[in-house]
Amino acid sequence: MQLIDGKLISEQIKAEIAKEVKLIKEVGGKIPHLAAILVGNDGASETYVAHKVKDCEQVGFTSTLLRFDASITEEMLITEIKKVNANSDIDGLIVQLPIPKHISEAKIIETIDPAKDVDGFHPINMGRMVIGLPSYISATPAGIIELLRRYKIQTAGKNCVVIGRSNIVGKPISNLLAQKSDVGDATVTMCHSRTQNLEEICLRADIIIAALGKPEFVTAAMVKEGAVVIDVGITRLTSDKTKNGFKLVGDVKFNEVAPKCSFITPVPGGVGPMTRVSLLQNTLLSAKKAIYC
Ligand code: NAD
User: Fold this and answer.
1) Does domain 27-116 sit in CATH 3.40.50.10860?
2) Which of 5, 14, 91, 96 is an active site residue?
3) Helix pair angle (139-150, 170-178), 10° resolution
4) pTM score of the predicted model
5) Per-residue pLDDT reduced to its tens digit, 193-206
6) Could you give the residue range(s) of every CATH 3.40.50.720 domain in the chain?
7) Which of 37, 53, 63, 95 is the most buried (most CB within 10 A)?
8) 211 alpha carbon to ligand 1 midpoint, in Å?
9) Residue 260: which of 224, 207, 230 has the closest Cα?
10) Which tens digit of pLDDT belongs to each residue from 259-279?
């Protein structure tokens, strides 16, 4: 069994990005600039946004954090997004989700200029991805593809089972793995809460991507010998064994599944750090006008 070290790979990618930014600075080019919008003060969202700002600093990007009170109206938030769209210095814009219930998430996502939508959530980017056109690919699926690529894990012709059909993970990763590409050409089965005989389906999988958000759901009985298991799930459980009083648990029962695998990602330290670094990669692509010229 080989552990897929997402932390290590993400550090390597960050170093590659930092090197490129240094070169851009030397020739007086455009320094990538990411703007993040945070509405309200949800604890987890605060942490995620703080990480994103810190990641930008680490690689030499400029970042702007725009904070709004949870009471902001949908109309006002749309106006603020349009201001960022019009600001030519900003290359990438993300709106940290979730947003308060009185604001339509779909409307907010659709207001972001697709050329700055480095989260890859805009329907135009999703649609372009599906038909294989250059697009921003959302951070988690992009991070998973990068891990498979860097660990040289064969996907062509393999049976791949994705558990979960969310717009941010399950649907895009299923689509990407089925595409004709270097990390693709797989035969993909996308499972969800209404899937029957999930255990049987998983037992046929060469690659399992678990993205359902149910701690330790995937057990050894669901995994065949030699399978590759990518654990996307992150659930924060209380723990009396850690200093901060909680621990992060994946969707895979790691201790019993790992011995059966050829490759497996840990939680934490697997997909999570790759998600963070993918956002930086998309922002760099935007600054270089690599997707939308
Ligand atoms: P979601 O909550 O939007 O969707 C969960 C999906 O799982 C649904 O499509 C549902 O049909 C499916 N599902 C639920 N119960 C099931 C069952 N018993 N059998 C089969 N399918 C079932 O999920 P999401 O936003 O994609 O997140 C999934 C998990 O991944 C969460 O734990 C989340 O925190 C984590 N996540 C991690 C990262 C990362 O960077 N590592 C990024 C995004 C999400």
Assistant:
1) yes
2) 96
3) 40
4) 0.97
5) 999 999 999 999 99
6) 139-272
7) 95
8) 4
9) 224
10) 999 999 999 999 999 999 999
Q: Which helix (H) or strand (E) holds 67?
A: strand 62-68
Name the segment(s) of the chain with CATH classification 3.40.50.10860. Answer: 27-116
**Is the pLDDT confidence value at 293 over 90?**
no
Q: Cα separation of 115 and 96, whole Å? A: 18
Distance between Cα 212 and ligand 1 center (Å): 3
Between CA 286 and CA 293 the distance in angstroms is 9
pLDDT at 107 (0 to 100): 98
113 an active-site residue? no
Per-residue pLDDT band at 244 (split at 50, 70, 90):
confident
Q: Which of 249, 7, 232 shows the shortest CA–CA distance to 140? A: 232
Which of 5, 14, 52, 281 is the catalytic position? Answer: 52
CATH number of 139-272: 3.40.50.720
